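One thing: could you explain this record?
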Amino acid sequence: MKIKTILVSQPEPTDDKNPYVDLSKKFSLKIDFRPFIKIEAVNGQDFRQERINILEHSAIVLTSRNSVDHFFRMCKELRLTVPESMKYFCVSESVAYYVQKYIVYRKRKVFIGKQSFSDLMDVIKKHKDEKYLVPCSDIQKQEIPVLLDKAAVKYTNAVFYKTVASDLSDMKALTHDMLVFFSPGGIESLRKNFPKFKQNGTVMAAFGPTTAKAVKDAGFRLDIEAPMPEAPSMTGAIELYLKKAAKEAKKK
């Protein structure tokens, strides 16, 4: 089956130079975007019941912009003043840059990993005496607590926000030739919003091992998996798939 339409389960990029535009032009595709999941804040009253004292911690581990926003939102909601001595361990430069929205940036209290959480662990290991707070969603990457436990650092996982299925009731059915997912939550949303969905010839793409596992666990066929050595991005993996499909079509 020739791929003509793709549905990406994320918000549409605001940048006209995003790689999906190039992919669309190169293969004459119609690419639509629709978030399958949304973020909901855990309110201060519910958080208090967890009996986690934010100010007992000396360092915050920030893995995304969501974790940054919801950490500072919670502090505001609980009327806590974060001390200037608080240290921030950010998974990437982009997250560290985003922290400046809330604090006066000082090198001595902002520590940055290269890109992945395992990179950040190299930095955390050099500061083993800190007591870390990890603001996260209810769906957390499995490697985070595993690596923190392995390093024997003191830390508290704290759910500051939840990942829930978007309401897709306006979409009567999924008619795209390819569906692209980036989290297990997206697969849960697919099952919740379209309980009668049958994959048949629909191509499924997943980014990351946990998303790939969720696709298979749900009983679907995984056709495209990213990242891979020859295609570190989702668009790159889709392009490889389309080129291979075109070659096979010519042979027939």
Remarks:
- The CA atoms of residues 52 and 158 lie 8 Å apart.
- The two ends are 12 Å apart (CA to CA).
- Residues 40-163 form a domain with the Rossmann fold fold (CATH 3.40.50.10090).
